[in-house]
């Protein structure tokens, strides 16, 4: 029974490790054997092991060559037995490396680092987030958790874990206890209510494993905002409110500027007016226009383009002849 347990334990070792042990045993055995058979040719055990290694690897330097028939028979036996094990060892080692790399791409390898950011869910928002973080800090370690991807995105410093964010085993693979922050995005493959339920469950699972973890969560519906706050979210991003606010705000700006354009010489409360781009400023940057009009005590706050207003444009924005300036 004891020998059976030892044999079972031996079979549980990695195959390449077992083959390496067998090769080492063969080198030691034949290294000692050749010293016994040809003591004049092989003076030390190291000489014998060196000959066995060069022989079994089929390199054949020729610095040690058996001179007697027993020594030559031992060399033949070593070649027949050992060469197959060496070939099997390198083949197994290459297969293990390939399998490890394949498991990494498939998201089956656990993350061992600390101080990293975990993002749950893959969608276009996540893609933009990863690009933004790589611009801000290319060295920032990021772990992406997702169950829909077959292979992780090939992005530098992004470690992919395949699985569901609500499962403890998945979060532990992402080393949730050593993470610095967690971002949970809404599942794009589910309806809004189901997506919010999964997001809150993911938050509860993460907080259960790491109560001090800083968590940001995206919520789509009103009813789950409070639930996310109760679950311990440090910041709740209510997507519908943010989008509605931006759309209404830009629509109102568009309506106001449309009225200004119809009555170019009239102002609203005598504060806002539309000014055509002077010919001298066409092709210049928005910053140049700011300086130009400040000298005339006029403040430029935006650009009215054909497709709509652009408030507070970048200083490097190039003015076009058809543009108009929104001024105070």
Automatic annotation (TrEMBL):
Q: Which GO terms describe its cellular component?
A: plasma membrane
Cite the PANTHER family for this sequence.
POTASSIUM CHANNEL PROTEIN 2-RELATED-RELATED, POTASSIUM CHANNEL PROTEIN YUGO-RELATED
Supply the name of the protein.
Voltage-gated potassium channel Kch
Localisation per UniProt entry: Cell membrane
Biological process (GO) annotations held by this record are: monoatomic ion transmembrane transport; potassium ion transport
Keyword Cell membrane in the entry? The reply is: no
Q: Which InterPro entries match?
A: K_chnl_dom, NAD(P)-bd_dom_sf, RCK_N, Trk_Ktr_HKT_K-transport
Q: What is the topology of this protein in the membrane according to its UniProt annotation?
A: Multi-pass membrane protein
Give the PROSITE patterns listed for this entry. Answer: RCK_N (PS51201)
Annotated ranges, domain RCK N-terminal: 114-238
- Keyword Membrane annotated: yes
| Membrane spanning residue stretches | 15-37, 44-62, 74-98
Q: What is its main location?
A: membrane
Q: Which UniProt keywords apply?
A: Ion channel, Ion transport, Membrane, Transmembrane, Transmembrane helix, Transport
From the broadest rank down, the organism's phylogenetic lineage runs:
Bacteria, Bacillati, Bacillota, Bacilli, Bacillales
């Amino acid at each position: 029974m004891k020998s059976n347990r030892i044999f079972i334990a031996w079979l549980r070792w990695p195959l390449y490790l077992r083959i390496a042990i067998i090769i080492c045993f063969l080198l030691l055995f034949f290294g000692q054997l050749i010293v016994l058979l040809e003591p004049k040719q092989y003076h030390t055990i190291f000489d014998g092991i060196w000959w066995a290694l060069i022989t079994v690897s089929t390199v054949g330097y020729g610095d040690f060559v058996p001179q007697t028939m027993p020594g030559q028979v031992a060399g033949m036996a070593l070649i027949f037995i050992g060469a197959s094990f060496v070939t099997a060892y390198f083949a197994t080692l290459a297969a293990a490396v390939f399998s490890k790399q394949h498991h990494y791409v498939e998201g089956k390898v656990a993350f061992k680092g600390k101080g990293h950011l975990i993002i749950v869910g893959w969608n276009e928002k996540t893609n933009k987030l990863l690009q933004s973080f790589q611009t801000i800090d290319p060295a920032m370690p990021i772990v992406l958790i997702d169950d829909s991807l077959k292979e992780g995105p090939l992005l530098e410093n992004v470690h992919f874990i395949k699985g569901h964010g609500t499962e403890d085993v998945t979060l532990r693979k992402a080393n949730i206890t050593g993470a610095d922050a967690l971002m949970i995005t809404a599942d794009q493959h589910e309806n809004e209510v189901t997506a919010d339920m999964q997001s809150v469950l993911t938050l509860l699972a993460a907080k259960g494993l790491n109560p001090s973890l800083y968590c940001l969560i995206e919520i789509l519906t009103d009813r789950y905002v409070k639930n996310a706050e109760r679950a311990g979210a440090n910041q709740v991003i209510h997507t519908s409110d943010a989008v509605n606010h931006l759309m209404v705000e830009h629509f109102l700006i568009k309506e106001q500027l449309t009225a200004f354009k119809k009555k170019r010489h009239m102002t609203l409360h005598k504060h806002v007016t539309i000014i055509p781009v002077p010919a001298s400023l066409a092709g210049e940057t928005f910053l140049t226009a700011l300086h130009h009009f400040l000298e005339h005590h006029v403040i430029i706050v935006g650009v009215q383009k054909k497709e709509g207003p652009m408030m507070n444009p970048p200083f490097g924005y190039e003015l076009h002849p058809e543009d108009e300036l929104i001024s105070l």
